[in-house]
């Protein structure tokens, strides 16, 4: 509902502006004629000004409609889904087909609504104000056009309100489980891996919601009940979600701390880790790193004033990301650019940027001939991945714990990197990659 309110406010400017312009442009003698016939000010507005300004007002509504359709695709960034999902998944995986699958329907929807509103505008415009030479529309057709426009608006409003507005939606409930994930390839694979395993081992139905957004968006979806579970990382949970100071050290100690804190603060359970540590790192082209003599982050810091960093927006804002890294190593890059997660590696490969934030299990590090720099001060905490699940979901479906624990310790760094590479480099579907791995392990 807040998103609907925001979109409504956003759309008001062209409507109000055109309404004001249309009324102010009604010629003064016409209004004076109405007053001379004994009309009150309100009657002049309703019977003279608004009818004469109606075509200008409708033009504002058409403009607002097209604007809102375009802006609504951005709602995918906060987990709202829709066509924006396809667009941003395509950007993240550099998949032109997905981008077109989202943008073309959005453009067609905008054109369709604009056409229908244009027909509605024509129908409500007084005959005397229609362009000369336009064929007069009979009364029945005018009524049909107006009715279609009203029904279209009502249908869209009903659909949005039925979903509870533009937002996450609700978790499954009953015999349905909702599995969410963040907005990058590894999470996409894990969402399908968890979902397919649940469907194979239980009688539960699964709603899959990959690419919800960043860590805070996905965590909020979990605690609000919009999803039942998702894959999280111990370091992210400790620093980004709990707000604790990032510390390196014993992975088991970090897991125990974050597990206890989640149980106390959020009534959320951490299941045993999958086995891989997808820690943050910084990477750069191997030839450039060798030329500059950079192997560690301390060496990078010494040369950072002449280099450009291209990193995800989330990394730039996290205390266990760029903010903390600056304090720990004293890095001061010549330029810092925020990029979509799917573009950071390609930017370094092509030389657009010199350094990017990377995940240690990302297959593109090796494929693009990049060099992951050593965190010689051990700034980054361990980022072991595990399922986080709401306690009430486990209570309602206790079989989930045994099922999901089948993945505990089964995926090491090398395996996860290979799975990521199949999607990012070989352009395979995440679901197909996840399910093939489950079959290879005898879990499906």
From TrEMBL:
<dbReference type="GO" id="GO:0043190">
    <property type="term" value="C:ATP-binding cassette (ABC) transporter complex"/>
</dbReference>
<feature type="transmembrane region" description="Helical">
    <location>
        <begin position="52"/>
        <end position="78"/>
    </location>
</feature>
<comment type="similarity">
    <text>In the N-terminal section; belongs to the binding-protein-dependent transport system permease family.</text>
</comment>
<feature type="domain" description="ABC transmembrane type-1">
    <location>
        <begin position="1"/>
        <end position="117"/>
    </location>
</feature>
<dbReference type="Pfam" id="PF04069">
    <property type="entry name" value="OpuAC"/>
</dbReference>
<dbReference type="InterPro" id="IPR035906">
    <property type="entry name" value="MetI-like_sf"/>
</dbReference>
<dbReference type="Pfam" id="PF00528">
    <property type="entry name" value="BPD_transp_1"/>
</dbReference>
<protein>
    <submittedName>
        <fullName>ABC transporter permease subunit</fullName>
    </submittedName>
</protein>
<dbReference type="InterPro" id="IPR007210">
    <property type="entry name" value="ABC_Gly_betaine_transp_sub-bd"/>
</dbReference>
<comment type="similarity">
    <text>Belongs to the binding-protein-dependent transport system permease family.</text>
</comment>
<keyword id="KW-1133">Transmembrane helix</keyword>
<keyword id="KW-0813">Transport</keyword>
<dbReference type="GO" id="GO:0031460">
    <property type="term" value="P:glycine betaine transport"/>
</dbReference>
<keyword id="KW-0812">Transmembrane</keyword>
<dbReference type="GO" id="GO:0022857">
    <property type="term" value="F:transmembrane transporter activity"/>
</dbReference>
<dbReference type="InterPro" id="IPR000515">
    <property type="entry name" value="MetI-like"/>
</dbReference>
<dbReference type="InterPro" id="IPR051204">
    <property type="entry name" value="ABC_transp_perm/SBD"/>
</dbReference>
<feature type="transmembrane region" description="Helical">
    <location>
        <begin position="140"/>
        <end position="161"/>
    </location>
</feature>
<keyword id="KW-0472">Membrane</keyword>
<feature type="transmembrane region" description="Helical">
    <location>
        <begin position="98"/>
        <end position="117"/>
    </location>
</feature>
């Amino acid at each position: 509902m807040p998103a609907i309110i925001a979109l409504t406010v956003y759309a008001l400017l062209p409507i109000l502006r055109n309404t004001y312009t249309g009324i102010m442009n009604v010629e003064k003698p016409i209004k004076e004629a109405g007053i001379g016939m004994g009309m009150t000010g309100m009657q002049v507005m309703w019977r003279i000004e608004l009818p004469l300004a109606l075509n200008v007002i409708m033009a504002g509504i058409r403009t607002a409609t097209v604007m809102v359709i375009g802006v609504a695709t951005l709602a995918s960034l906060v987990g709202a889904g829709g066509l924006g999902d396809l667009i941003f998944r395509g950007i993240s995986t550099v998949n032109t087909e997905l981008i077109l699958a989202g943008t073309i329907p959005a453009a067609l929807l905008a054109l369709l609504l604009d056409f229908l509103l244009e027909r509605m505008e024509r129908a409500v415009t007084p005959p005397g104000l229609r362009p000369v030479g336009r064929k007069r529309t009979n009364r029945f057709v005018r009524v049909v056009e107006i009715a279609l426009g009203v029904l279209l608006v009502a249908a869209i409003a009903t659909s949005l309100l039925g979903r509870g507005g533009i937002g996450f939606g609700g978790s499954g409930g009953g015999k349905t489980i909702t599995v969410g994930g963040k907005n990058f390839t590894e999470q996409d694979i894990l969402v399908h891996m968890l979902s397919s395993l649940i469907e194979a081992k239980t009688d539960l139905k699964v709603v899959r919601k990959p690419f919800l957004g960043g860590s805070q968006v996905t965590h909020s979806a979990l605690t609000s009940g919009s999803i039942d579970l998702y894959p999280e990382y111990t370091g992210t949970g400790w620093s980004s979600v709990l707000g604790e100071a990032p510390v390196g050290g014993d992975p088991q100690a970090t897991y125990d701390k974050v597990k206890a804190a989640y149980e106390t603060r959020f009534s959320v359970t951490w299941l045993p880790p999958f086995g891989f540590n997808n820690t943050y790192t910084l990477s750069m082209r191997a030839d450039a790193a060798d030329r500059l003599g950079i192997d560690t982050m301390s060496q990078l810091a010494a040369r950072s004033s002449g280099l450009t960093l291209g990193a995800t927006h989330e990394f730039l804002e996290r205390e266990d990301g760029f903010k903390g890294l600056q304090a720990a190593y004293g890095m001061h890059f010549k330029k810092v650019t925020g990029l979509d997660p799917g573009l950071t590696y390609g930017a370094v490969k092509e030389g657009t940027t010199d350094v990017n934030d990377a995940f240690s299990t990302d297959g593109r590090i090796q494929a693009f001939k990049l060099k992951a720099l050593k965190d010689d001060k051990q700034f980054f905490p361990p980022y072991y991945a595990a399922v986080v699940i709401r306690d009430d979901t486990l209570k309602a479906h206790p079989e989930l714990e045994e099922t999901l624990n089948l993945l505990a310790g089964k995926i090491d760094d090398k395996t996860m990197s290979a799975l990521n590479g199949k999607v990012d480099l070989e352009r395979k579907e995440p679901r197909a990659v996840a399910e093939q791995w489950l079959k290879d392990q005898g879990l499906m």
